[in-house]
Amino acid sequence: MKIVARDIPPRAAWALEQAGVHPLLARLYAARGVRAKDELDEGLARLLPPSGLKGIDTAARVLADALQQHRRTVIVADYDCDGATACAVGVRGLRMLGAQHVDYLVPDRVTDGYGLTPPIARRVKERGADVLITVDNGIASVEGVAEAKALGLTVVVTDHHLPGPVLPQADALVNPSQPECAFESKCIAGVGVMFYVLLALRAELRARGIFDVATQPKLDALLPLVALGTVADVVKLDANNRRLVAQGLKRIRAGQMQPGIAALFHAAGRKAPAATTFDFGFALGPRINAAGRLADMTLGIECLLTDDPGRAAELAATLDGINRERREIEGGMREQAMLMAESLFDESEEPPPAISVFDPDFHEGVVGIVASRIKDKLHRPTFVFAASNAPGKEHELKGSGRSIPGFHLRDALDLVAKRHPGVILKFGGHAMAAGCTVAEEAFDVFEQAFAQVAQEWLDAATLTRRIETDGPLAPEYCRADIVDTLHREVWGQGFLPPTFSEEVQIVSQRLVGEAKNHLSLKLIHQGNPVDAIWFGHTEQLPARVLLAFRLDVNEWKGERRVQFLVEGAEI
Fold it and tell me: How many CB atoms lie within 10 A of CB 145?
């Protein structure tokens, strides 16, 4: 492991500080590429205009026609948090804009697979729909869109995933990743794309005289959902995404949110008035995702759609229970998968350049989480496979992969597919996360081919885990109120939360937790005693060590004290 301090451009930090930004925040923002205070403006007026999205004007016209003709619309969602929030935003937004007949359908992870398939298109038609809208899927659904069109449906695809060589022939296609789309925020989440489509639809209805500026619905009420889905999908928080998230957080902290979001905060034991991006990523998001992993994402979507606080509380409690079950399943799977991964190399050796593991007892709903855990520990691109439970697919393996910086996972799958035709039955995804299906008898071929690509693409520097930090923490900033200030800011993928690094003296250390799998530390930082904890780490540290750590506040008997959350150590 290598701990590396980020470069902090002194002029940018000075300019931000002179503009009134807190000195510590000025340093943190400058290290993340912010050069002027106006880049930190979170106002809605600073959002990129919808007009930059290719196909959005066509989508707005198609949907405006459907709305005015009272045509029946069904939204086809995805079974993760981005898909669930995008669906809720679509249903709520269309109803706000006057749609009379809006329903949704979410595929089942096991029996249906991902995206708009021909059977899903037929089910939409059977519901009496005239219009089909995809959210967070559809860019790769060439056959599904063709089937929907053949059935007489009007199809609007909204997605953000990378397209394949052939685009679906939808009536409208809105995706910043499609060729010739000039929209600057290529990493907007699926929920963000749907929100933008609603903005364009509202503008089209204004142009048709349905609303004016004074009477148009306030779509900003949907921003708590947009913020949740954006953070939970771990997309890069560029300036536009940060504004969407900041606006959502602002409303949640003020108590202006859907009952389902309020209920999820309560079920997770988190406080909405002090909401953070951490809550989205590690408390609310996993509870919604659990429904898609182990049960039916309809539960998650209904929680986000209901306006009845009592019903929202019931659904949030159910989701919380499913999430507990997910954690139990994941724990056993993670232990088994880690043993299998570590058996691939001797203790004295480096891990292979890529990891692929499969066990017949693995649950396909949590393979992605387990892959992420292995990737985090071994710092290798990792795929975890489970046997498909779908009828007629018993000899197929469903795999989910997670990657490390410098290794584009979807491109790697593409190369494996080209080198070994027929091994990968289907695949898709992003640079850092992807999924694929292989025949069970082809697993060994996939494992070797995937490792071969990693061997060719990765060098020693990329295979060495690096923790980028913001350098030393001045002792005057080691205060609970400063930690509160930091937590209120918008951090996430591509705009990472503050992590500091310094050599510290270890005074004492002991293992804590039911499984004795966390290292509790008492240390001296800049002459002052500080408590620290390293979750999931059991190896003892030397008396002096370079630590990378984040800041947190530990409350005990009314006293709030800063503690360090250790991210890594360079020994």
Answer: 27
Tell me how far apart the alpha carbons of residues 86 and 194 are, in angstroms, rounded to a whole number: 6
Measured between alpha carbons, how far is 73 from 198 in angstroms, rounded to an integer?
Answer: 14
Question: CA nearest 432: which of 400, 455, 409, 450?
Answer: 409
Q: Distance between CA atoms of 6 and 133, rounded to whole angstroms? A: 43
Q: Rounded distance, CA 186 to CA 176, Å? A: 5
Percent of the chain with pLDDT over 70: 100
C-alpha span between 14 and 12 (Å, rounded): 5
User: Over pLDDT 90: what percentage of the chain?
Assistant: 93
At residue 252, the pLDDT reads 98
Confidence (pLDDT) at 529: 97
Q: Over the chain, what is the mean pLDDT?
A: 96
Token pair 């690094």: residue: 501
**Mean pLDDT (whole number) for 117-141:** 97
- The pLDDT tens digits for 439-455 are 999 999 999 999 999 99
Question: Is the separation of the CB atoms in 530 and 501 below 8 Å?
Answer: no
The dihedral of CA 68, 70, 72, 73: what is its sign? Answer: positive
What does the pLDDT read at residue 113? Answer: 84
Q: Which of 496, 470, 479 is nearest to 552 (CA)?
A: 479
Angle formed by the axes of helices 285-294 and 298-305, to 10°? 140
Q: What is the pLDDT of residue 424?
A: 97
Q: What is the 3 state secondary structure string of 415-470?
A: HHHHHCCCCEEEEEECCCEEEEEEEHHHHHHHHHHHHHHHHHHCCHHHHCCEEEEC
**Contact assessment for residue 268 and residue 80, using Cβ atoms and an 8 Å cutoff:** no
C-alpha dist (Å) from residue 11 to 468, 486, 497: 21, 22, 22
For residue 495, give the DSSP letter. B
Q: CA-CA distance, 373 to 351, in Å (whole number)?
A: 15
Task: Report d(CA 380, CA 372) in Å as an integer.
Answer: 10
pLDDT over 90 at 382, yes or no: yes
pLDDT at site 392? 87
Query: Which one-letter amino acid corresponds to residue 154?
Result: T
SS (H, E, C) 379-412: CCCEEEEEECCCCCCCCEEEEEEECCCCCCHHHH
Burial class for 304, CB neighbours closer than 10 Å (0-12, 13-18, 19+): buried
Residue with tokens 């070797």: 448
